[in-house]
């Protein structure tokens, strides 16, 4: 992440810190926001030398933002006695609850600064694909074991799809998107297809665990030992939710693809058919077994990802120019391409 001097930090950060009443003072701040995101992120220094990371966000509803962070707090505490005790960055608490400062349409949260170790290369070797598959599978296994200790949230695929359908009925939102009448009808049809397919595949009866969805390699670090690696630290939670472990697989397919992780964001579905992703699935299934039929969910969870995080909420995650480009690609290219793809072959990777 680029670093830019930013002292003093924005007033909302200062007011949030004062309300926390920690007793220490902010003495320095450096902006470390990414170039694509609408979030503002700062690394702040306190008068005792401690550093924290603070995020200013306006995504979604405050209640959902708060509930997500409370769920993550329960998740980190549940993992605190195992191999992932220090993997997830912890939010700063007040009165034994995550402290989130709410000011109008913006909210602020502080995180304990994490140690960053090694980063994965842009294009992984075959052995590194194996390591990533094993690491993610083991993390999912641990998250499954502690799932009952993670507080629930009101957010669900159904509620997100209902929200998108409501927006598509709003002529002003459709105009500002901008969508043609044909494109708006196409997206309504995609909502119907997704809802129908999830019902047919009995998604709502599948196991639900905490998932992070965005495994862009800029969001986590690893530690290499004897030529292999394991997860070390993770600090971005923008797309956290409770759902199927397979929600993490689209980003895994991007990271392991022959093109590798990219700084020029595009959310095309073709990485799901990359042979290197088949190696990932085969390896993952050796640690956390996958039934071949489970993989029929992958195209639908990809469909949900682009409909929700790019189409519905893209303006909260991406700067305006990038958001317009990504949304147009989803409507004109990615979703039509998905419907033309035959992803049933993925079942052979684990059969």
Describe the model.
The chain is built from eleven helices and twelve strands. β5 and β6 form a beta hairpin. The longest helix is centred in the last third of the chain and has 21 residues. It is globular and about 60 Å long. The chain starts with a strand and ends in an 11-residue tail after the last helix.
pLDDT < 50 stretches: none
Output mean pLDDT.
Answer: 93
Radius of gyration: 20 Å
Number of discrete helical segments: 11
Beta percentage is 15-25%
Distance between the termini: 40 Å
Q: What's the story with the biggest beta sheet? A: 6 strands, antiparallel
Structural class by sheet pairing and helices: alpha+beta
Secondary-structure blueprint:
Layout: E1 4-5, H1 11-20, E2 26-31, E3 40-46, E4 51-57, H2 62-78, E5 93-94, E6 97-98, E7 100-103, E8 106-112, H3 126-145, H4 157-168, H5 171-176, H6 181-200, E9 209-211, E10 220-225, E11 228-234, E12 241-243, H7 249-256, H8 275-287, H9 298-312, H10 314-317, H11 320-340
Antiparallel strand pairs: 1-2, 2-3, 3-4, 4-8, 5-6, 7-8, 9-12, 10-11
List its salient traits:
351 residues; 6-stranded antiparallel sheet; two-stranded antiparallel sheet; 42% helix; globular
Write a compact overview of the structure shown.
This protein has 351 residues and is an alpha+beta fold. It is built from 11 helices and 12 strands. The protein has helices spanning 11-20, 62-78, 126-145, 157-168, 171-176, 181-200, 249-256, 275-287, 298-312, 314-317, 320-340; strands spanning 4-5, 26-31, 40-46, 51-57, 93-94, 97-98, 100-103, 106-112, 209-211, 220-225, 228-234, 241-243.
């Amino acid at each position: 992440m680029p670093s830019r001097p930013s002292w003093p930090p924005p007033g909302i950060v200062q007011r949030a810190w004062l309300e926390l009443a920690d007793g220490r003072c902010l003495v320095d701040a450096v902006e470390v926001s990414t170039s694509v995101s609408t979030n503002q992120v700062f690394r702040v220094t306190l008068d005792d030398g401690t550093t924290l990371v603070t995020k200013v966000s306006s995504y979604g509803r405050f209640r959902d933002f708060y509930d997500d962070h409370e769920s993550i707090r329960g998740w980190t505490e549940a993992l605190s006695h195992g191999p992932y005790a220090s993997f997830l960055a912890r939010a700063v608490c007040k009165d034994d609850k995550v402290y989130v400062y709410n000011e109008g349409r913006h909210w602020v949260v502080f995180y304990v600064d994490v140690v960053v170790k090694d980063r994965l290369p842009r294009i992984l070797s075959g052995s590194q694909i194996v390591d990533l598959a094993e690491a993610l599978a083991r993390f999912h296994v641990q998250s499954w074991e502690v799932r009952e200790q993670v507080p629930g949230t009101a957010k669900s695929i159904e509620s997100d799809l209902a929200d998108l359908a409501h927006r598509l009925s709003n002529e002003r939102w459709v105009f500002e998107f901008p969508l043609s009448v044909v494109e708006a009808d196409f997206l309504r049809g995609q909502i119907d297809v997704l809802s129908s397919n999830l019902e047919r595949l009995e998604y709502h009866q599948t196991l639900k665990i905490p998932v992070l969805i965005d495994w862009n390699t800029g969001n986590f670090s690893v530690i290499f030992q004897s030529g292999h690696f394991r997860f070390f630290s993770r600090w971005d939670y923008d797309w956290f939710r409770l759902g199927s472990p397979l929600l993490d697989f689209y980003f895994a397919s991007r990271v392991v693809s022959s093109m590798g992780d990219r700084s020029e964001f595009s959310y095309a579905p073709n990485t799901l058919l990359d042979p290197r992703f088949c190696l990932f699935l085969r390896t993952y299934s050796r640690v956390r077994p996958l039934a071949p039929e489970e993989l029929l969910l992958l195209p639908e969870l990809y469909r949900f990802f682009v409909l929700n995080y790019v189409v519905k909420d893209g303006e909260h995650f991406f700067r305006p120019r990038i958001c317009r480009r990504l949304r147009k690609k989803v409507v004109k290219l990615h979703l039509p391409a998905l419907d033309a793809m035959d992803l049933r072959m993925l079942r052979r990777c684990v059969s």
